[in-house]
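Illustration: Lipoprotein.
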Amino acid sequence: MKIKFLTSILAFLFFTHSCDRQKKNADSSKNKVEIKTNTAMPREKNKISILEKSMLEYMETANPSYTRIDVDECTKILNNYVSEISNSKSRDEGMEIVKTTVEKLNKLNEKCNFELIETSEREQIAEILIVESSKKGYNTPEEDITEEWREW
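Result:
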């Protein structure tokens, strides 16, 4: 009788634990889908957001000579670039957009005592500019189209 009673209790505990695990897995799957849905954004916007986050996090740990306003200006320049390059009609027009964007970034970085765009930021920004231009067929993804004007 005791064995039957213990077996029943164990079966009950196993069953309830199993149901809880299935419910948690189902809830977890829902969360994963929601996360994917919430973070779905165009790739270039995501790269710009990652860059912005990195710059702002650095501000929390260091005392750079740039401010939130400078970071906002940098992201504005990059977002404008993405929009302008995607609407451009020719390689010449596209390269003029690249040049203008790089020059704006040069001035902003100079205003920030050359601390806004350092090695990591340089790589991220150059990638955004190069990749977006290459999508239009103006260059290859391996070709650094920023180098001619870049001071960062």
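Reading the tokens back as a structure: The radius of gyration is 25 Å.
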